[in-house]
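W.,

You were right to be curious about this one. When I first looked at the sequence I had no strong expectations either way, so I just let the prediction run and decided to look at it fresh. Below is the sequence, 278 residues in total, followed by the output.
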Amino acid sequence: MPKYSLNNSRLNIIESGSGAETLVLLHGLLFSHRMFDAQVAALQPHFRCVRMDFRGQGDSEVTRAGYDLDTLADDVVALIEHLDCGPVHLLGFSMGGMVAQRVALKHPELLRSLVLMNTSAEPEPMRERPRFALLNLAARFLGLEKVAPKILPLLFSERFIQDPTCQEERERWLAMVTANDRIGVTRAVRGVVSRKSILERIHQIETPTLIIAADRDRATPPARARNMQARIDGSKLVMIEGSGHMTTAERPDEVNRAVEDFYASRDVSVTSGDFGHS
């Protein structure tokens, strides 16, 4: 896969599709561009889809520094400018959504629209930070294979964890986690957990915005989505029912439908039903 030297890091970039407008997709913490396989399969007939692995994750370089969310936002800006594809549609999941908000605040001229999935504008609660520190320590010294099963309740709903018919999918998603470099992941986790609030600033976002949340999300509870929706003027909130944090794993068709409807409302060259939902 091609790697570009951007903002002092070699980043893995994947392109597909041939639409007139560009969609940049930013993955969540612990994962990689592969978490959007189902979305890109649906969207690439309509967009030029560009996915990147954040530094330290997926197949991107494990750098010594640069894991704070503002630097990651600069990585995204560098990508858009390098590809000369702005203004773009920007979609971010969890950590990717945190980064996407910062891009929207720093460089609104680079964006046509914004999709914020299962994410937050708020800091990590202090009560949660010791747990993440402990998991990070275990991941660094024991390996991601030991830690991955411990984070299942944070990522998935109880139904998805317990349902034997979901076992193959659970294993596939956990394999994405364990495929990461453990040093890169621990640095990325520190960058996310130490983030500062931008809740008091997001009223400045004027980019057309869709917010997607899940009713059983333990990692980013729905209240955080409602807090964003109340502050971003004109934004729309879609709640995915019966799903934990990883809606792209548990409810991919519903995620696609919400995104499809949003882009159709923005006069992008798609119409409702184009994506062939099952």
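Here's what jumped out at me. The first strand starts at residue 3 and ends at 6. And, maybe more interesting for your project: Strands lie at 3-6, 9-16, 22-26, 48-52, 88-93, 111-117, 209-214, 236-240.

Coffee later to discuss?

I.
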